[in-house]
Write a structure and sequence with these properties.
alpha+beta, 2 domains, globular, L-amino peptidase D-ALA esterase/amidase, 6-stranded mixed beta sheet, 17 strands, homodimer
């Protein structure tokens, strides 16, 4: 199924992400040299795979990580933050429970997971990162979790298929890719597996991403590349304006390709471009992963440096904008109104707004527009809004999902 | 219909608003001495009343006003801000078009409205406030508007029924009350008419409120009372986290009762309590005015002064909290997660959460709870959440509506 899907439907599906010329797609479940992975069903979810382990066999592997900025964090985030010193070798992930708000018991479960994986993989506990996703405020069954870790490690293999499925909650499909990247120094491979439910089930809206490469580099280089590309991808999306307690990105570089990436070289630049495309497309998959009819919006804001970010967020998080996007309604009034909420009160709103490249508001004034034509422009699966504010020096973008009756129904009808 | 409704269903319907002991209810369409009002159908809407005029016959009338803090404002807000100097005598309001984003033409329509009303009422243009609600970015038909002003002024009478209906857009019913207030100095009357659609149609979610009293007072006293009571009412509600371009509150004191309210007296205190109850209940009506099944939530947050406001807003504006409220799901995880987004990253989330008076999270840890019992607690039309944060000195509340599939359907299916 996956292979067929890939054949007709390449990874770089969004018009907002271009495949860099030096990048080609490999089988999406592939892993770079040096990595093994597996996912198993440990009974944390009613059905399906729910515990995954990712491991690098190379002792000199370097790592980088990024975590949610929510003050409420799951126990795995606390434990992984303590562990991560640029030398992680493994990650244990589970769906079916986020292990958040369970106090000392939860922390001990996360640590026991880390210790067991370290022992079985013959590394130090501080070389194992952990990540959990699922309900908040329930106990994560420790014995099932540990059994899952044992089974997954026993089954470690050279592809990421079962691992990429074990981290899903209500995602409609796995989100993963494996890319061949031609660097001046030679070819390397970069792969990533992500999860994140869009509209379907923001109750479990944690996003997780695991990135692997066989390029060789310093901890600082991997950290820099990870930081920059996460900022341009997972930091730029809004499903429902909510920040999860468990968002985690782990990146690993095994060095097994023998191709070394030095700072401020063409190698670094090209690898960065590949990671950028990879993570941006995965972030867009998270936004788009709603029911069939979901649309994805992109708001681009240019103008005064201090205004572009709050304005872009205000538009992307507005329920009125999201419902108009859902309805295929080119409602420019809602865009400008939402933007206005982020302006300092009393500032004249001399903004220009383009929808799909067509100027509809100029200097704050609505232009006479052919509304039938405008509505036609917003019927596609991706809709772009560009706002130009007074001032200079700032430019940003946020990708956002629409708001559908299904979102509300699913999130209302769940019971704890 | 209105009278019957009032008989079975008194104005102070919310358990969160108490009728002060010195306040009694009069016919809800009543007006204090000195005021006249009318509403007419001028064709701005497809059907129903759409232009209203409110006037005080007393030359010494004082006024106060509050406006939206959105940087994008309708032309009527600009014109009214320029006019308001504490001596407004009249307000002209319309539904069917917010006169926002129409540049000079819109400003001129607002000014022409003001001038015509002033001429017909024999006051200065700067004594007429204007307020519009409806679509953004369309032209408000000037001739129809002016014809409406003429007809309304010709029909001015001693009750607020037609006026209170002319300001509605998709509100399910008029929002109005008239109260007798027993002050130490003698009895006075306070009335108010408000509009604001809750879940049904936030496309038109402007809130307007017109308050009248026959108490006598200085401009400063009316301004103080208006500011304090607006802060505790219309400033404390969230329908969809969106700020309208046209929110306006006008307050008028005619002095016709002969009862004078001096600063820092028992009279001022009691009048303030009456206005407080009046505006809080009207604000709650705005939140509750959704489809039949809508629930209203109240989040009370206590703790460090700088945290309580952003935390309360984060909870009230969270789609996950709103959908859980809609579904009757006592989902404490979503409340704490939403609160966590407003904490400075890295701050330990040592919070307590009570739902309907029952402690469910203590020191950031979920307590073992009887979830069937908890779910029972959140089946009513009003649900209360109380969060206690670390620190002292701050306490606030926000009232919010739930998020229903109907909200999304209505806001998706509209076309411009």
């Amino acid at each position: 199924m996956t292979a067929a899907q890939t054949a007709t439907d390449t990874f770089f599906r969004s018009r907002w992400v271009e495949r860099p010329a030096h990048v080609s797609e490999l089988e999406p479940t592939g892993l770079p040299t040096g990595f093994r992975a597996a996912g198993v069903a440990a009974g944390l979810k009613a059905e399906g795979l729910d515990v995954g382990v990712l491991f690098s066999d190379v002792s000199g592997t370097v790592s980088a990580a990024r975590f949610t900025s929510n003050a409420l964090v799951g126990a795995p985030v606390t434990v992984s933050r303590e562990a991560e010193r640029g030398r992680l070798r493994a990650a244990v992930a589970n769906s079916g429970g986020s292990n958040t708000g369970d106090g000392e018991r939860g922390l001990e479960t996360a640590r026991a997971t880390q210790r067991l994986a370290a022992k079985l993989l013959a590394v130090e506990p501080e070389q194992v990162g952990v990540a959990s996703t699922g309900l908040i405020g329930t106990e994560l069954p420790r014995l099932q979790m540990l059994d899952g870790v044992r089974a997954a490690i026993a089954g470690l293999g050279g592809d990421a298929d079962s691992f990429s499925r074990a981290i899903l909650t209500s995602d409609r499909r796995p989100k993963r890719a494996c890319l061949r990247v031609q660097l001046p120094g030679g070819p390397v491979t970069v792969a990533a597996q992500a999860k994140g439910a869009g509209m379907i089930s923001p109750r479990f809206a944690t996003m997780l991403c695991f990135l692997q490469t066989d390029a060789a580099m310093s901890v600082d280089t991997l950290d820099l590349l990870t930081g920059v590309t996460v900022k341009r991808s997972f930091d730029r999306v809004s499903v429902d304006g909510q920040l999860s307690t468990s968002d985690t990105v782990f990146a690993f570089a095994s060095g097994a390709s023998g191709v070394r990436v030095e700072p401020e070289t063409e190698d670094e630049l090209r690898l960065g471009e590949a990671m950028d495309g990879l993570l941006r497309q995965l972030a867009l998959e998270i936004v788009a992963d709603g029911e069939g009819a979901a649309r994805v919006g992109r708001v681009v804001v240019r103008g005064a440096g201090e205004l572009v970010e709050p304005v872009a967020r205000a538009v992307a998080n507005s329920n009125l904008v999201k419902t108009a996007l859902h309805g295929g309604d080119a409602n420019f009034g809602r865009i400008v109104q939402a933007a206005g909420t982020a302006f300092p009160p009393g500032t004249p709103m001399l903004v220009d707004l383009e929808i799909e490249g067509r100027l509809v508001v100029s200097g704050g004034r609505a232009l006479a527009a052919d509304s039938a034509l405008l509505d036609q422009l917003v019927q596609g699966r991706e809709v772009e809004y560009a706002l130009t504010l007074p001032g200079h020096g700032g430019e940003t973008e946020v990708f956002f999902s629409d708001l559908s009756p299904e979102y509300v129904r699913l999130n209302s009808e769940y019971t704890t």
